[in-house]
Amino acid sequence: MKTYIWSIPTRIFHWLLAIGFTIAYILSDFENFRNLHFAFGGFVGILIIFRLLFGLFGPKYSNFSDFPLGLKNQKEFIKTYFSKSPKLYPGHNPLASVIILCILFIGIICSISGYMLYATENNVLNIGINEEFLEESHEITANLFLVLVGIHLFGMMADKFFHSKTGTLNSIFTGYKNIESKNTQLNSFHKIFSLLWFTIPFIIFYLAYGLQINTKENENENSNKEYYEHNDD
Ligand code: HEM
Ligand code: HEM
């Protein structure tokens, strides 16, 4: 018996997030790709904001009210994990729910701290927060994000190994799990919302790509230009 668990928007979000985060993280090492880093980083932040809204009024299983978070659920999940008849969860299991919420929360802070760092370094906004603090916050949240992804992947592999019949790993590609439950269903509002969800992040990508960087060389170049223009007059 197969049940439709992850609708198309949840799956598109998942893969855009995975790609966006991976590229933003890798590019952070390259000075020459600074603007692409901003673009992918901003893209990830907006994607997550939409996912948070989808968690509030989204369909079954993707809705946060369907995340089995409580301590009782965690205990039951851990206790039965290796038993012959483990408790099966059609949506996210209790531990996955916690990790996923942490990914969303840390992802947003990482993206916002990145923008604030950019804005402070380049005198775009005077936020009044110390640059070093922002740099530390951005670095720590980015690395925490990476650790959470590692835990997420480890959890998925463990599930594949110990509960392979459920088909959790395949579900993020196909949408279906081998569990008997109620199919998820999108209403018209979810569909219209999803159009915005997968349009606006690309606009932010474009805008973030165009952010001006005032490097020391740029500043010197600009002041030299001003000096020569002034003297030409
Ligand atoms: C979730 C998305 C993001 C991830 C995973 C990420 C990751 C990183 C990492 C790993 C670093 C290197 C930290 C270090 O070792 O010092 C970095 C630096 C930086 N990031 Fe991000 N970032 C993201 C979003 C953003 C955004 C949206 C912006 C700005 C629009 C941004 C601006 C910066 C800046 C200005 C630096 C410092 C570059 C430097 O001066 O060396 N980041 N980021
Ligand atoms: C940077 C990489 C990744 C990130 C940031 C990430 C993040 C997430 C998030 C946030 C969710 C929750 C989806 C939602 O409810 O909207 C999720 C679910 C899931 N992810 Fe990933 N993911 C990554 C890579 C992968 C990879 C490479 C795989 C396996 C090929 C994978 C397999 C899954 C599966 C199977 C689920 C559904 C889990 C369940 O049924 O409880 N993820 N992931």
Task: Explain what this protein looks like in three dimensions.
This protein is mostly helical. The chain has one domain (3-232): Up-down Bundle (Fumarate Reductase Cytochrome B subunit). 68% of the residues lie in helices and 2% in strands. The chain has helices spanning 8-27, 34-57, 71-80, 94-121, 131-162, 168-174, 188-197, 200-209, 216-232; strands at residues 3-4, 176-177. The chain has a two-stranded antiparallel sheet with strand order 1-2. It is elongated, with a radius of gyration of 22 Å. The model has no long low-confidence stretch (mean pLDDT 93). One protoporphyrin IX containing FE (HEM) binds next to helix 1, helix 4, helix 5 and helix 6.
List keywords for this structure.
233 residues, mainly alpha, Fumarate Reductase Cytochrome B subunit, two-stranded antiparallel sheet, 68% helix, elongated, binds protoporphyrin IX containing FE
Q: Low-confidence parts lasting 5 or more residues at pLDDT below 50?
A: none
Elements, N to C (H/E): EHHHHHHEHHH
Alpha-beta content class = mainly alpha
Strand content: under 5%
Helix content class: 55-70%
Question: Might you state the CATH topology name?
Answer: Fumarate Reductase Cytochrome B subunit
Mean pLDDT across residues = 93
What binds here, in terms of ligands, is: protoporphyrin IX containing FE
CATH architectural arrangement? Up-down Bundle
If helices are DSSP runs of H or I spanning 4 or more residues, what is the number of helices? 9
Number of strands: 2
Strand order of the biggest β-sheet: 1-2
Query: Over the alpha carbons, how many angstroms does the gyration radius reach?
Result: 22 Å
Q: Characterize the overall form.
A: elongated
Taken together, the total number of domains comes to: 1
Distance separating the two termini: 82 Å
- Report the biggest beta sheet as strand number plus sense, adding barrel if it closes: 2 strands, antiparallel
Question: Which CATH C-level class is it?
Answer: Mainly Alpha
